Amino acid sequence: MSERFESQLIFHCAPVLSGKKPSNLICFSKTALPELPQLLERYEVLLRRNGLAIRFLDHCDHRYMLLIYRPQMLERYLSSPFVRKLLSADGYAEDATLEQLLDHLSHRLQSCSSFPHEIGLFLGYRAADVICFQKYQGEGCKLCGYWKVYCSVKRSHKCFRQFDSIRNRMLTMLAQGHSLQSMLEHPICCAA
Questions:
Q1: Which member of 4, 53, 87, 99 lies 3.0 to 4.6 Å from 92 by CB, making a disulfide possible if both were Cys?
Q2: Residue 103: how many CA atoms within 13 Å on its side-chain side?
Q3: Which residues are CB-contacts of 10 (< 8 A; sequence separation ≥ 6)?
Q4: How many separate domains does the chain show?
Q5: Is residue 108 part of a domain?
Q6: At residue 106, does pLDDT exceed 60?
Q7: Residue 97: how many CA atoms within 13 Å on its side-chain side?
């Protein structure tokens, strides 16, 4: 497998890999990692066996944008009536399946002139923070970490510290010669 790919995946997605967050975005340069489509074919099986999925959301001439996610966890979050109402306001069907929601998000990423802010919901950010981000156009947040926080600052700060701890542990294990496969199959490295 690819240590370079695994280190990037762990750096950007450790909270998802460890089961503490439903999803994360990661972008790869097509010139830096031209073999990405072939790599993903090999990694999809490993990730699927461990309750994870990968999906191309967008790509252009220069980069691939991937969503790494835990389907059950993401579906549970997105099925909240309040979250569904927010998504509905952005044109998502209220009765859409997870795959249909992701299809619509992918379409919006490819067709919108600006980044669709509802993506925060797909990344498991707190709905209140997503609403405030849209309302204040990203300004005036009380904490900036894995996302911009407007509400529940102490809780978010604790969450961010946990995410950092998981990432650091996983990166240390990778540097010590452990593979992503061993970390996913023996998740003691991810407990926090």
A1: 87
A2: 6
A3: 17, 167, 170, 171, 174, 180, 183
A4: 1
A5: yes
A6: yes
A7: 3
Structure tokens at 177: 């010669």
Say if residues 19 and 13 touch (Cβ distance below 8 Å): no
Q: Two tokens at 38? A: 């072939």
Sign of the C-alpha dihedral, residues 176, 177, 183, 187?
negative
- What pLDDT does residue 167 have? 96
Residue 23 in contact with residue 124, Cβ under 8 Å? yes
In a domain, 74, yes or no: yes
Instruction: For residues 59 and 69, give the distance between their C-alpha atoms in angstroms, rounded to a whole number.
Output: 18
pTM greater than 0.85: yes
Tell me, what's the pLDDT at 191? 54
pLDDT tens digits, residue range 158-175?
Answer: 999 999 999 999 999 999
Cα–Cα distance measured from residue 88 to residue 147, given in angstroms and rounded to the nearest whole number = 22
Strand ranges in 30-70 using DSSP code E only, listed in sequence order: 53-59, 63-69
192 within domain boundaries: no
List the domain range (segments joined by +) for residue 99: 3-187
